[in-house]
């Protein structure tokens, strides 16, 4: 444990600040750039989705968050495993096992989200199409994100960086950047080639079965699977609030297109701040116990992280203005957003630390539940924040 203690935190304020601006800040900027890929696609197709496939809007926040939750938790587990010497490379069987476990643990929440959407909007032919679309996207994106998580976690660790400070935000942003375009592409794929779409979905399911066969589950994996699947199912129920709110106020948001462009970035960036706080708290608790949270290095980390919130908030709005222009609409700086965003981040960082501590206190591995919980809460709060902004701007 002594090498871990040195790696995790005996540095002073200046070194913490340096790592925050040289490692975490570039990672968050990359996340922001990736988020606007999904944001641009969502903004361009928002009206089409709201009109033809409204069930996707009910599912979308939970679906995006579910991907980040599953693989954010996987990144947190792998970081701990790297510190303990259990993982050596991306192609380790342990990595494959974690990938199959991550994909499998997302199935129940997906069904829960779909059923919630059906209860709200009714069962129709498009509802069945949406179900197949989310299953196909879950498998395709699951394989992509699984190995991306392994790469993003293992290689920074080899280079001497703390994976907790970059892995969780990067993988949740990669999840966002591939989720929305994949969903839209699969909608068009189904509409143009329904037969090929069915065959493609069957192929992905067969590949998933092969990965499960290759995996090697232990009691620890089974325990983690139960914890993650159970937590994600509960969180899926909470995400229904985000999805229902988004669908209910889609009319107001569609009148302020820049908000639909910013939507993935707002949810993801706030979740990133919270997940970084949760991940570093989780690792400290697992390696050193609750005593690690009273050390000044922990507060240095959190304090340095908070300094980035106003910068990321302004850049989110500024970049969104140009992305909105690229897709054929106009957008401006929204000062209520720029002023309110840092406060939203502070609240969610505090929640991230508290959830990690609370789960550890009740003998639940925070690696498995902290990040999914805080990103879900961030989604709900971020969605409400966007709706309030939409109502303010439309009313004005």
What does this structure look like?
The protein is mainly α and 396 residues long. The chain has one domain (10-395): Orthogonal Bundle (Tetracycline Repressor, domain 2), CATH 1.10.357. The chain has 15 helices and no strands. The longest helix is centred in the first third of the chain and has 40 residues, at 13-52. The protein is globular and about 50 Å long. The N and C termini lie far apart (58 Å).
Overview in brief:
The protein contains 15 helices and no strands.
Topology:
Blueprint lengths: L1 H8 L3 H40 L1 H30 L9 H13 L1 H15 L3 H34 L8 H26 L1 H21 L4 H30 L1 H5 L2 H32 L7 H11 L2 H18 L8 H27 L4 H30 L1
Helix pairs in contact: 2-3, 2-7, 2-11, 2-12, 2-13, 3-4, 3-5, 3-6, 3-7, 3-9, 3-11, 3-15, 4-6, 4-8, 4-9, 5-6, 5-9, 6-7, 6-8, 7-8, 7-11, 9-15, 11-12, 11-13, 11-14, 11-15, 13-14, 14-15
Key features?
single chain, 396 residues, mainly alpha, Tetracycline Repressor, domain 2, 15 helices, globular
